[in-house]
Structures
1.
Amino acid sequence: MTPGKPPVAIDLFAGAGGLSEGLESAGIRVVAATELHPQPALTYAFNQPNTSVLFGDIRELSLDFLAETVRHRTGKIEVDLVVGGPPCQGFSTAGKKAPTDPRNSLFYHFVRVVEYFRPRMFLLENVPGFKKMHDGQAFSRCSHMFRALGYSTVDATLDASHYGVPQRRQRFIMVGWLPGAAAPFPWPLQTHGDVGTNEELPLFPSKLLPFITAEEALDDIAFLEPGWESHRHQEAARTDYQRERRNRCNLLFNHLATRHRPKAATIFSFIREGGTISSVPPSLRSAKRTMARLDRKSISNAVLALPDDIIHYRHDRIPTVREMARLQSFDDDYVFLGKRTSGFLERRVDVPQYTQVGNAVPPLLGRVLGAALLKCLGGIQQDLRDLRQRRERHKWIRGSSGFAGYTLDPTAQGKIAITDIRGRIHPLPASTDDIPVAQSKSPFEWKVYATPPMRGQWAPTVTPKKSPAYMMEPGCDSGSQRR
Ligand SMILES: C[S@@+](CC[C@H](N)C(=O)[O-])C[C@H]1O[C@@H](n2cnc3c(N)ncnc32)[C@H](O)[C@@H]1O
């Protein structure tokens, strides 16, 4: 690390950039990121103007090329930190738990990058099941490889709600450091907890702040009825959490409320606040097993990638992408690009906005982890996010976050580079036909706007039987269906 300069990091399996967003806001400079899919990679590149994003399969990534990418940003190839969350479907208790799932081997590629760069520290993030699945084999193999490379490691399962995220979400975190090059890692102290609702003065006042409830996180943007979209807040922020997420940004993105079919709305109407699908008459339930309505006075359960698991506490609709992003602690100026959602078949090949949000590490958790890493690496805590440039870019966003997603003004071409792992630059989904978001003042009925011809979206035509690959020619028409 150059004295006086912030530590430099690479983010692998970076998705839409939740972890990077947190690290940057703590004072760690993320200079390069890799991600399989162009949809989250585009979101990442749009919001993180000072990071080079490479999309493509990490198994085919040349590390010399990644090093050149780092050199392009910093003038040298050394990095202080490698972070990343190799896909966890194979390890997750919600997944199929298949030991032969080839994605399980992706953590080897995390080790490969650590071996190549020999950063002073690394941080590996995953689901809690990572440590126990397959008789703990994945975890012990991983630990063994890191020890062989000379790293000391610690690991723990943290709950994001303990750090001010309005959501119970557990993540397995493993941190490693090279003794002598970085100090041992101190786990961040819990700041939020269940301090009870008793209004009498407690005998031993808790040092913890109360958990952030769904209402405290969402109420200022909960005005949206099904079928409407708004690019303005409309109402004043009422809590510190809401004010922090707005961070003086006066635009609202990805806030489009689904108009459900009458049958779905009827099912939702049977579930009271805090209740689950068990209160829906069996004759109406279809195949769906999990569904719960948010309780405005409680903390939300984990935001999963399938949005129809959660119903808004005030409306008979699922939360908007923005409401999910609020529950994940993304700031309102963070724009999600690509398709809003996908039909059942397209989910095999798409990473739509809802999935990008649901997959992310909550930025607030990333920030406390970043602050703890800084103590070991020796940097100062500061917000390195380039919010000025990010908000300049808001002027390029056109249209609706509807099923085909936003388009960008063609002036964005050349200023936002979507580069694949072979160094090829790909065009953005650009168009001048849509209305710039910054000019749309009041809520509008989204069906009017969100049915444009699908211009240049970063999604494949779906031929699931023939096409196991995630990769596609960018710019081809989407085969999406509206939810
Ligand atoms: C859990 S998400 C990461 C979330 C991210 N850390 C964040 O905070 O937003 C895992 C990501 O790994 C990506 N991925 C899956 N297989 C990959 C591969 N073979 N090469 C590179 N990235 C891959 C997925 O597309 C997904 O976005």
2.
Amino acid sequence: MRVTCTQPTSSRHRTRAPDRRRIASTGVTVKPLSCGRKGRPALPPLPRDSRRSGRYLLVMDTWDAIRSRRAVRRFDGRPLDAAHLDRILDAGRRAGSSKNTQRWDFIVVEDRERLGALAAVGPFAGHLAGAAAAVALVTPDPRAPGTPLSVMWDLGLAAGNMSLAAWALGIGSCPATVYEQAAAREILGYPADRHCEFVLSFGYPADPEDLTRAPRPGGRRPLDEIVHRERW
Ligand SMILES: Cc1cc2nc3c(=O)[nH]c(=O)nc-3n(C[C@H](O)[C@H](O)[C@H](O)COP(=O)(O)O)c2cc1C
């Protein structure tokens, strides 16, 4: 599967009309935006800004997206393109769920003041204040008697879909765990029988190099440390 999307250029790609170029450290390929697939319009282009002199398509296959994605907590302040935000939400909606129960609702927040308030729902939620958008993930209360653990499995799949779809569009994201439940409920107004354990921040990274930087050495445990074959 290939994912084709718009992506602002970084300084190292500013020179004239490079052909499709693969960034060796991550396997991510960039090519000029004009090369969009014939008959299939690219997503609406990102706005130009003073730091970027051109636009590029970022062609990322599923593996590239999985291995290059990282948590991004600093954003450049631009609002998300509406088509990009829709794509992210749709990616969450398309996740599989236990018995296809789809026990999730997504509350999208773009209002700067509300984003600022959300940054106080946990000790590590500060990145929400600078995000272009937050998506609060709302479920039935996972601790209510009789609620199966699969609610959180399903929510993780939806969140993973959103984060990967965003990444392939050149958009960074990071979860924030909600510690202050009452505050989150007050800010977001969801019903008493619902619960919000996580809020995702989304935005174009303050440092566009975040999107193509090589994975941090030691950032993930090696396969042979975590994989057990046949038996533990
Ligand atoms: C369930 C879950 C909760 C998380 N909660 C927070 C959080 O409250 N604040 C935060 O800054 N990052 C949070 N993170 C992001 C993790 O810190 C991040 O995924 C991890 O450090 C790996 O980062 P990397 O992908 O950049 O290597 C959370 C991640 C997960 C999966």
